[in-house]
Write a structure and sequence with these properties.
Blueprint lengths: L3 E4 L2 E4 L4 E7 L9 E6 L6 E6 L6 E3 L7 E6 L4 E6 L8 E8 L13 E4 L3 E6 L1
Parallel strand pairs: 2-11
Antiparallel strand pairs: 1-3, 3-8, 4-5, 4-9, 5-6, 7-8, 9-10, 9-11
């Protein structure tokens, strides 16, 4: 059974940076498109960013475009999210997820992801 474990969350002041990591167990990491989602208190889970299995394609939510960068290291089975110029509205629990089916394209739809991590809290103070 695949396991995804996020790390790197924490408390940061507005304008600061954080780098989230997501380690995926198993040898098939390089076959799957991956994504980051977030959920703030009282709100629905929302899409943040996604990257294709090869790393050659990325797609971002408008709210984070130009500030966040998604990347992956297939040799290390690890997904990253570099978050710069953080704002208080970025405060949320951040989740990494694996898209259903190998060698698929990017998608913002959480229903197309079939494996999720436990989440890591990111808090941005004003």
């Amino acid at each position: 059974q695949v396991q995804l474990v996020e790390s790197g969350g924490g408390l940061v002041q507005a304008g600061g940076s954080l780098r989230l990591s997501c380690a995926l167990s198993g040898r098939a990491f390089s076959m799957y498109t991956m994504g980051w989602f977030r959920q703030a208190p009282g709100k629905e889970r929302e899409f943040v960013a996604t990257i294709t299995w090869s790393g050659g394609g990325t797609y971002y939510a408008d709210s984070v475009k130009g500030r966040f960068t998604i990347s992956r290291d297939n040799a290390k089975n690890t997904l990253y999210l570099q978050m710069n110029s953080l704002k208080p509205e970025d405060t949320a629990v951040y989740y990494c997820a694996r898209r259903r089916g190998a060698y698929q394209g990017t998608t913002w739809d959480p229903n197309e992801y079939d494996a999720w991590g436990q989440g890591t809290q990111v808090t941005v103070s004003s």
